[in-house]
Amino acid sequence: MSGFEHHRKSDRIIATFSGFEADLLRSLASQIVELLRNERAEPAPPTADPFEALTAEFSGATTIPEDPVLARLFPTAYVDDDESAADFRRFTEGGLRDGKAAASGLIIDTLEEAGLPPELDEEGLVIDVELSRSEAETWMRAFTDIRLALATRLGVEADDEDYWHSLPDDDPRAQAHDIYEWVGFLQETVIEALTS
Length: 196
Hints:
By secondary structure, the chain is mainly α. Helix content is 59%, strand content 8%. The protein has one domain (5-195).
């Protein structure tokens, strides 16, 4: 398993994935896109306030998403002020969702453009990825979302590595945690490549 490296001559951020790794990344990114699109930020109910009526098309949800992953991806901006928190969420969450979906979508598109087939059925397939700096930054943001989603679903907490390493290798939670750590490794190598 290798990570991302900065190719100085072309100023590109490059990585090579096995077909399995590329397919796993595509699956994780697809799950993020699906989650963001399935529980859409719904517009607020009609209002008598003229200003709010004018800006209704730019508004969205005013409450914390029900899904714990979405609640983690879109935390409350004003913990002690429900009205300000609702206003902030209404005007920002839709755009933030679109940005996060686009970031994960870039991972999917890049892997497929690099040769990842719709169904992985070829052994020994290698996928070479070359990213511009801005594309690498987008991948890095998508990795953050994927890791937050995995951490939330698994219940990962600070300083709980001993627990995860104590699980048997065939435990699905241990396997999911290995994926969480692998995405973290990829994220670190993107950061290193961007700063080298």
